[in-house]
Amino acid sequence: MITVTINGNAVTAETTDSILKAAERADIYIPTLCYHPDLPPRKGGMPVHVVYQGGIRFENDPSKTPQTGLESGCGLCVVEMADSGELEPACGTLVAEGMSILTESDKVKARQREKLKEILADHPHACLTCAQQEGCPRTQCSSNVPEKERCCPQLGNCQLQKVADYIGMDPATPKWMPTDLPVIKDDPLFDRDYNLCIGCTRCVRACRDLRGIEAIGFVVDSGGKIRVGSVAPTLRESACKFCTACVEVCQTGAILDKGLKNKREDLLPCVAACPAGINIPWYLRFVAQRKMDEALWVIRQGVPLPGILGRVCTRPCEETCRRRDVNEPISICALKRFAADNGSEGWKAASLKATDSGRKVAVVGAGPAGLTAAFYLRKLGHSVTVFDSNEKPGGMMRYGIPDTAFPETCWTRKSARSSHWVLTLCRPPQSAMNCP
Ligand code: FES
Q: How far is the CA of 118 from the centre of ligand 1 (A)?
């Protein structure tokens, strides 16, 4: 760890931290636009030969980009080195022992305002300085701003707006002139409005570097302007997987989720439809990474019997899966079963149990409800005893569901006083040999 000074305050940072990261540690805000913690920097990004914005084709002009790629980022994150007076990008400069950094000096503010002016010249911004922007329906305008020049539906929720509020807009910022670029609404899951693109290339980096797809790219046109678009005339022809990584990183409304109403059920309909509220995207991501124990840990936060549920669930989550709009729903239920069948006991490490509460609970009935109640009570630290008239636990799962629904099963009954109450589905041949 080293110590640097930011705005006169001593801040402890790691030697591998950027100035931006060190400032974040100290809760000091530095505006950013092109930076994203999961993406490589915009600086150095390589253009492709041609991109399409709907019916418009843009070719790269090699004379406008050096062979090493883009020469700079958005430049909004500049900070001043107190000793030399130099301005450096906070997102791409590493801290050094004894460094003294200013994030709000006049020089920094002037540069940020200049950069913001350049960016806003290419983006509708009439509403950003409107005194009545809060609660504005955007359908009528008391200042008579033409509809085309008003801000997008992201107003109030927009990173560019946040940055503009912090830096303050230069009164000399030129009026945005409508560009009449395509607005494409016939793709599944998200819409694209190229009039709102500021060329930060976060979507390109998410598609290329995060997902390895390269369905979108950017060129630098003969006027030196960055043009982002699909690498073929349509996204489908560009082999887009509609993974929506580009939507997640777009901060200006240029790529907008069709379901965006800022409601959780719009964005995560599978979670909203799951009666247990399991965080489905989270565990699917772990399954995709072959991290079955982590996936089981996520699933077990909602249901303690994933192996069985992965076989008998009626799958309401799949009914609402947004991938239906692209091709077919994700096989959420089968993937839960896959995690249960291929995971180990490793999930227990992350499944915390509260310290013993000293309380005892008797649960009558060792069916799914009783076992689930016992599981969560035990996690809360209570001592649990489960009673059942049948010899073995499971209730309707054991006695009501035909054996054919399961592989050869073995029920392991653990002490209700142990730290976890678990039913295990053993796989043959082990089950026949070792069933207690
Ligand atoms: S955020 Fe650092 S250069 Fe854009």
A: 14
Atom of ligand 1 lying closest to residue 34 CA:
4
Ligand 1 atom, smallest distance to 32 CA: 1
Assess whether the C-beta atom of 18 lies below 6 angstroms from ligand 1: no
- Between CA 175 and CA 57 the distance in angstroms is 26
Assigned superfamily of 266-348: Alpha-helical ferredoxin (1.10.1060.10)
pLDDT tens-digit series, residues 174-185:
888 888 899 999
Closest CA to 154 of 170, 166, 138: 138
Task: For ligand 1, say whether the CB of 163 is within 6 Å of any of its atoms.
Answer: no
Residue 280's pLDDT is 95
**Which residues lie closer than 8 Å to 436 by C-beta, 6 or more apart?**
412, 413
Look up the CATH architecture of domain 2-43+63-167: Roll (3.10)
- Closest atom of ligand 1 to 73 CA is 3
- Please provide the DSSP assignment of 322-361 as one string: GGGGTSS---HHHHHHHHHHH--TTHHHHS--PPP-S-EE
Span(s) in the chain for CATH 1.10.1060.10: 266-348
